[in-house]
Structure formats: C-alpha cells, structure tokens
Amino acid sequence: MHSYEPAELEAYLAAHVPGFGGLDGIEKFSDGQSNPTYRVTSGGRHFVLRAKPPGTLLKSAHAVDREFRVMQALSPTPVPVPKVYHLSGEETPLGTQFMVMQMVEGRIFWDPALPVLDTAARTRVYDAMNATLAALHDVDPSSVGLEDYGKPGNYFARQLARWSGQYTQTATDGLPDADWLMRWLDDHMVADDGAASIVHGDFRIDNMIFAPDREAVVALLDWELSTLGHPLADLAYQCMHWRLPHAGHFRGLGGVDRAALGLPDEDAYVAAYCARRGLPRPGQWTFYVAFSYFRLLAILQGVLKRGLDGNASNPKDTDRLREVIALMARDARQLAETG
C-alpha cells in the first residue's frame, strides 16, 4: 500500500488528468499481486490508478510505462483496451510511477468454469476470448508504432534467459524440479520460425472485463508483461492455466467436465484460434506449455520473495505460495517427461 498526502495527490491529478476535479475517494482493489491498483473517485467519475509498488524492485519489473504505451497504441485497433489518460514520472505524490486510465464497467469472471452462467453463455465467453487473442496477434506492431516494443531473435530463448535469471535471483528454497525444468527447456528449445506479434503476457479470463449484458470482451487488462514475441506464448499460457487444478488456490479447469459445461477442450480452443488466424496446428506443443509453467512459477517466486521482503501488493500466506510453486514445478516436469 502506498502512503501519500491527499491534498498533494489531488493537486497532481487535477493538473494532469483531463476532467479530474477533487479527490473524493481512493480505494485499493483487493486482487492483484504485482502493481497496486486503485479506484479513484472524482465527482461523478471513476478512474483507475495503477502504480509500481513501493520498495526495491527487480530490473524491468512492474513496468506501468509499458502498460500505458501498449494500451495507448492499441486504442484505434479492434483489441479492446481502456482509454489511458496520464503516465507520471518516477517522482510522484505516491513515491512511485503510476498511470491513470478509464474505469471500464462490466463483469470479471474469476472462475474459468463460469458457474454463474448457463451453458450457451459459457460457450460464447470462450469464443469471445479466442477472438480477442486472435485480434491481438493480428495487429501489425509497426502499424501502431510498436515495432521496437521487443527485441529481435528467438523469443523463447530470450524469455527463458530472462525468467531463469529472475527465478535464480528470487529463489528462497531449493526446488530440484524447477532446476530440472530450466535445463529441459534449454535442451529442447524450439527454433525461431519468424512468427512475431504483440503478446499480452498474462492472457487469462480474470484479466478481461466482459460487457454487462452480453458475452463480449470490452477491456483486456494487465499489460505489464506485454512485449513483441511469439503468439503461441499467449495461447499456451492460457491453456496451461486450464490444466491447473480447479480447487484450492488454483483457477484452472483440471478435472472439470468441459463438455457438460459447454466449454471447449484444449484441442478445440487451439483449433479455433488457428482457424481464425489461418495457421496450421502448432507442433512441439509440450514445449510451449512447459515453458508457460516455468514462466508462471518464476513470476510467483518473485511474488513470494516480495512477500517475504514486505513489498507485495497483496501478500499471501508464504507457506501456501511455496506449495503452489512446488506443485507447478512438479507438474511441469511430469508434462515434459511424458509429453
């Protein structure tokens, strides 16, 4: 949680955010581990303020400036993003950099099994997510000024180096399965096939707002991990989430009868995405999903380290988080070993 002087923050926002009057209220959203996010009320208007957390941060982490840039660039495209109003510098009334954007009204579904919807509506939600992902990957980065938003070369090799480094920096316990997975991914690295697009980096159902009255995505949120990269990274990452258990602290679809609920199975979802983009079905799918496991467990390891250091946006029980990371490493190793 940030500390601030209300009068100073009010004056800053009034000077930099169009249509902002007095600071009538500020409330932190309870969910989210990375960048603290607040609902800011000014008269009859609501804004969202998203800030870097306080404390010492890893290099390149918590990049609200990248979030601001990509959403601003995507605003004229078919990809649904909130309007962005202001990006601050590093010196602010909150003590960290932040951005201010539109408050989009709608529904957020925290459970991917969608128990609050009927069968037909569940099918439409998943089709809307699929269409949103395909629309994002169809955007030509150079057409929206994002041709320099990532580095050239093999995306997965670059990402593995990044997340291996961050995992190593934040490791708090010995985890042989994670160490084995790092080596396996390096040994089975996919070749660079030249495919490149804007990738979201955290594409999952609870990072989307759906319209209040229909199953359509009206805002894709949380662009902190976005970059130029391989589109299969986003697709595999979402599918990886659905392999996780539908129990405890996981929000997966493991063990769920998808057909009975009107949800597509993984093969059907991948096929629909490929059909939308005119692509063949991907080979080496095990690598892409195993990489997604490692990337997420490395991110969670960073959350654990920040929690132990007292800098997490929404601290969790560290023992539970340790258990989650260990389970993910075990399951990813099993996937890699069995294919």
From TrEMBL:
<dbReference type="InterPro" id="IPR002575">
    <property type="entry name" value="Aminoglycoside_PTrfase"/>
</dbReference>
<dbReference type="InterPro" id="IPR041726">
    <property type="entry name" value="ACAD10_11_N"/>
</dbReference>
<dbReference type="InterPro" id="IPR011009">
    <property type="entry name" value="Kinase-like_dom_sf"/>
</dbReference>
<feature type="domain" description="Aminoglycoside phosphotransferase">
    <location>
        <begin position="26"/>
        <end position="251"/>
    </location>
</feature>
<dbReference type="Pfam" id="PF01636">
    <property type="entry name" value="APH"/>
</dbReference>
<dbReference type="InterPro" id="IPR052898">
    <property type="entry name" value="ACAD10-like"/>
</dbReference>
<protein>
    <submittedName>
        <fullName>Phosphotransferase family protein</fullName>
    </submittedName>
</protein>
